[in-house]
Amino acid sequence: MSTPELKRAHVGKRLSEYAVYNGVVYLAGQVPEVDPKADIRGQTREVLGHIDRLLAEAGSDKTRILSCQIFLTDVTDIDAMNEVWDAWVPQGNTPPRATVEAKLANPDYRIEVVVTAALG
Predict the structure, then answer these.
(1) pLDDT 10s digits, 6-17
(2) CB atoms < 10 A from the CB of 51, how many?
(3) What is the DSSP letter of 30?
(4) Burial 84-108 (b: 16+ CB within 10 A, else e)
(5) Which portions of the chain are predicted below pLDDT 70?
(6) What is the CATH superfamily name and number for domain 6-118?
(7) Rounded CA gap, 90 and 13, in Å?
(8) Hey, where are the domains in the chain?
(9) How far apart are CA 4 and CA 91, in angstroms?
């Protein structure tokens, strides 16, 4: 029996944007890069766009998300974040999700999202 291949993509000094192993894609935490000064809705839209792009590149999509962790710098942003999330996530395919308040690496970030998904 052969060992499944481990693939890493967009490998940097500190992290890879994602890894694929045994039929599962593991995304690094996605943060706003274009406009880190945007409000929570703008940052959420951007981050979800990163997730769409990376999942597609890996051979998956948002209907195949197995779990999602959302980190907010201010949990009072959850309603505004959920407005964007609810418009993005496919109904009937909403994944298990946790949302917590956390101090993020960059003080301009209002959100970071970590996703694990099955390959398509």
Answers:
(1) 999 999 999 999
(2) 22
(3) B
(4) bbeeebeeeeebeeebeeeeeeeee
(5) 1
(6) RutC-like (3.30.1330.40)
(7) 34
(8) 6-118
(9) 32
